[in-house]
Amino acid sequence: MPETKESLLKHYVPYQLKEGEEYMNEAQLEHFKSILNAWKRELMEEVDSTIHHMQEDAANFADPSDRASQEEEFSLELRTRDRERKLTKKINETLERIEDDDYGYCDSCGVEIGIRRLEARPTATLCIDCKTLAEIKEKQLGS
Q1: For 110-142, what is the HEC assignment?
Q2: pTM for this prediction
Q3: Which of 10, 80, 103, 109 is the most exposed place for a label (fewest CB within 10 A)?
Q4: φ, ψ of residue 20 in degrees (nearest 5)
Q5: Beta carbons within 8 Å of 60's beta carbon, 6+ residues apart
Q6: What are the pLDDT digits (tens) for 117-126?
């Protein structure tokens, strides 16, 4: 199987901030573009792998248990790919935000999201404070 997002994080080098450096300058934007594009590439490789795996392993088992096991395996894989499809969409939206010069700032309050938070979650659109508040509200409404 191709490597997952975890493998991407093993190979990327955290951005080294320079004193007095402007937030979301060209170097920082390029750093995040490369992370997002690598992540997207890995997701696309996963999709190709799934298609190949399902074509190769698709068998019409006579035994109902074997058939059910294979169907469950394929179902789990397809659910994973659906989540990855949604993530790919979010990555594309994030790349558009970079192109539109709108990346790195909170959608809710407008403050800087921060380099380290964006490295942990490159598709983040909220600063940690607004995200925490949103999660608290979600929990209150969900109860």
Answers
A1: CCECCHHHHHHCCCCCCCHHHHHHHHHHHHHHH
A2: 0.77
A3: 10
A4: 75, 5
A5: 67
A6: 999 999 999 9
